[in-house]
Design a protein that fits this description.
24% of the residues lie in helices and 29% in strands. It has 195 residues and is an alpha+beta fold. It has a single domain, classed as Jelly Rolls, CATH 2.60.120. The strands form 2 sheets. It has a 6-stranded antiparallel beta sheet, with helices on one face. Strands 6-5-8 form a 3-stranded antiparallel beta sheet, with no helix packed on it. The N terminus and C terminus are likely disordered.
């Protein structure tokens, strides 16, 4: 996994958001007003000079009327080799994330997160438009905060929950490696390919 990855992923995310905004003939001013974020921040994000919390990213997607999955860069094909992982940016700080399931898989979605100490989804709670989320800590520690509950997970621990407002971070001194499974996969507005 590439140590320089997060910057590349943030740049790709910013470029995709800018592309969607321009395609929809949306100005930074109007997007700022509808997302509750500043024009300056959005400009920095589009240029790859700022990271965004998962909650704020979901608000931007809602303001642009685009599904999060449509700005991700999922892998093609059924086989995903370890040396060819596809990096995605879902917001947050101190994260490098990879999608392990193909972009056209709609039944479930599996993500692998490398989380630096102190890194995570950000302060703002967020909710994915899915039914169930599963998280498994492969290495390190992870704190998952749900609406009224906080779970401290260590290597080998797993947590399954109905998708409710939540946030997560790595409270430990070492990087954490975490696998996430969501079902169904994050939705898209694009038509599904017939098999």
């Amino acid at each position: 996994m590439n140590a320089d990855g997060p910057d590349e992923a943030v740049a790709m995310l910013g470029a995709r958001l800018r592309e969607v905004r321009l395609r929809r003939r949306e100005t930074l001013d109007s997007l700022a007003g509808r997302s509750g974020l500043t024009k300056s921040f959005l400009s920095k994000l589009e240029r790859g000079h700022a990271s965004v919390s998962m909650g704020a990213l979901l608000r931007i997607c809602a303001a642009l009327d685009v599904q999060l999955a449509e700005i991700m860069n999922g892998p093609e094909g059924r086989l995903v080799r370890a040396g060819a992982l596809t990096q995605v940016a879902l917001g947050g700080e101190g994260l490098t994330e990879y999608q392990l399931t193909p972009a056209d898989e709609h039944r479930l979605q599996v993500l692998l997160s490398e989380i630096k100490p102190g890194g995570g989804s950000g302060q703002e709670y967020y909710t994915f438009p899915v039914e169930v989320e599963f998280v498994h800590v492969i290495r390190g520690q992870l704190t998952v905060s749900l609406e009224d509950e906080v779970y401290e997970l260590a290597a080998g621990d797993s947590l399954t929950f109905v998708s409710v407002p939540h946030a997560f971070h790595n409270p430990g001194p070492d990087p954490a490696t975490v696998m996430w499974v969501v079902t169904p996969a994050l939705p898209t507005n694009q038509p599904r390919k017939s098999s």
